[in-house]
Amino acid sequence: MPPVQQRRRPFARLFDNRATLILTLLAPVMTFFIVFNTIPTLWLLGLSFYNFSLTSGMPPDFVGFRNFFAILASKNGIWFDLSRTFTFVLCGVTIQTLLGAMLGFLFWGSKDMPGRRIALTLLFAPMVLTPVASGTFFRFIYDPTFGVLNYLGRALFDSGPIDFLGNPELAFWAVLAVDCWMWTPFMTLMTLAALGSVPKAELEAAEIDRVPFLRRLTLVIWHHGKFIMMLGILLRTIDSFKTLDLIIPMTKGGPGQTTRLVALELNKQAFESFNMGWSSAYAVLLLLISIAMTSAFIFVLSLRRRRENGA
Amino acid sequence: MSRLREWLYYAALWLIALIFFAPIAWIVMSSFKTRSDILAVPPKLFFKPTLDNYVDLFNRGEIFLQIANSVVLSIGAVLIAVVVSFLAAFCFSRFRPKGTDFLMFLLLSIRMLPGPAVILPVFLMYVAFGWKDSHLWLMLFYAMFSIPFSVWILKGFLDGVSTRFDETGIVNGGSWFHVIFKVVMPQVRPGLIAAFIFNLIFVWNEYLFNFIIGGVNTQNIPYALSVGTYSDGGVNWTFISTMTSVYIIVPVVFIYIFQKYLLVGMTFGTVRGEV
């Protein structure tokens, strides 16, 4: 006699077959993935071999690898943008990590602080704002005539009006400062997480043994906290490589090209000049860099997992 | 620690938090100033507050469209994404079909790519099919962009739920349907909340995609901020400060309420814990 339930709920029983269940669970995500990612990525790869501009009205023209050669060989092109981007990433991530770690250590012992939750909300607020808004209002703060920063400069150091975003030597650093303002709290958050992962017993043991702070830092804290810090640094590296909407409202890549990062250049070529073939090739190159970075991230994750399983 | 030292320490921490918040506070303050007070040299710290800017902003009309778009797009996209991701994450966590690691890698790499590189082919596709400037298609794209993050977070949480629960459920005659939604789902509630909140903040903040594959009908608040910057023949600072003040309420209130999910939300679920 067949079970009663089979007749009562045939729909639910359908999933007793493992393969059907797996397919049903994965179908929605695969549909999304194929429609919005696989097809567009193949389109992008294909188009990178064509000369195609949306504004010219000409049909795409097959040019082989010529787009790639043009990009890689261009003067004042991708190599400058890449080196500028990596300078931005390197300086930004270094400053944010050092400053964030310092703040993290400061906030370490603040469990009983009055109003801690509000204070942390204020501290973490910069990183959840849309960069478009931060960029726009920092232009207001940096303004040479009525900006508050210039006012402070004049009052404290008696300096003349400084056009932070208009001066080719300062613009890059002014943008970097805003990036640091936004993301130092993130590294503070990661430092707090890393410190939280250190077992209390080991710290207390080290304290009782009167191990000096620096040795405690290298032997105990770094040993337990290093993976979280590495993940934080990697996430920050990847994110800062993508920086775009912070810079658009501030300088649009100028003055000259001093704040033109790779994402900005691609945005401009694709959506202002509508140079689609060239931009696709550029995007493919960025895709390769991103894949390398993602692999590094996954590698660190697997290292952590291996250690957790081994321990 | 003596009492005084403790208070000094807390005061220093508060000071640091206030320094980080100062630029935002300055903008919120500016939104209560008149146009001439905003442009005053030297900048005014004390002034007569006025609500005129807010009255002006809400008299513009489009603001309601922009707020409604922001709300509808973010909630719609995130709901779709969380449901789809939960099913996929359950599958990845429990059955580990072939290619799980590769798929997880591909999903993550979407989020690691600079925005224009993601949107370029999608833009061409949307233009070709006439999907531009439509709420539905923009929402679906946002959903797809929120999926990687949700899958990563939810898989982490699902891995932490013992398979004993599934087995018990199945052995006792429950269907998989029952096990997934009634037995396992309640146990990963923190993961669902984290995925929901942080994707919501992401879509709420998103500007580039809305600008490129959206349009006038689907404009959200960041779009409005970037487009409304230059109006009335110059930079319109009253509009910017007022609009920013209205917009930041949501993310700031969210990180206050959901502070314990902040860590998991900012790290794709790869780091767990509270601050």
Total number of helices of chain B: 14
Report the mean per-residue pLDDT of chain A as an integer. Answer: 86
CATH architectural grouping of chain A:
Orthogonal Bundle
Q: From N to C, what is the helix and strand string of chain B? A: HHHHHHHHHHHHEEHH
Contiguous runs where pLDDT drops below 50 for at least 5 residues of chain B? none
Low-confidence stretches of chain A: none
Main sheet record of chain A: 2 strands, antiparallel
Spell out the CATH superfamily of chain A.
MetI-like
- The CATH homologous superfamily of chain B is termed MetI-like
**CATH-derived architecture of chain B:** Orthogonal Bundle
Strand content of chain A: under 5%
Strand content of chain B: under 5%
The figure for the number of domains of chain B is 1
Oligomer: heterodimer
Number of helices of chain A: 14
Helix content of chain A: over 70%
Number of DSSP E strands of chain B? 2
With strands numbered from the N-terminus, the spatial order across the biggest sheet of chain B is 1-2
Whole-number radius of gyration of chain A? Answer: 26 Å
How is this structure best summarized?
The complex is a heterodimer of chains A (311) and B (275). Chain A is an all-alpha fold and 311 residues long. Chain A has helices at residues 4-8, 10-13, 18-47, 66-73, 78-107, 116-128, 131-142, 148-157, 171-196, 200-208, 213-241, 247-250, 262-271, 276-310; strands spanning 50-51, 61-62.
Task: List the topology elements.
The complex is a heterodimer of chains A (311) and B (275).
Chain A: H1 4-8, H2 10-13, H3 18-47, E1 50-51, E2 61-62, H4 66-73, H5 78-107, H6 116-128, H7 131-142, H8 148-157, H9 171-196, H10 200-208, H11 213-241, H12 247-250, H13 262-271, H14 276-310
Antiparallel strand pairs in A: 1-2
Chain B: H1 3-30, H2 35-38, H3 52-59, H4 62-94, H5 100-111, H6 115-129, H7 135-159, H8 164-171, H9 176-184, H10 189-205, H11 208-213, H12 221-227, E1 230-231, E2 234-235, H13 237-257, H14 262-266
Helix pairs in contact in B: 1-13, 4-7, 4-10, 5-7, 7-10, 8-9
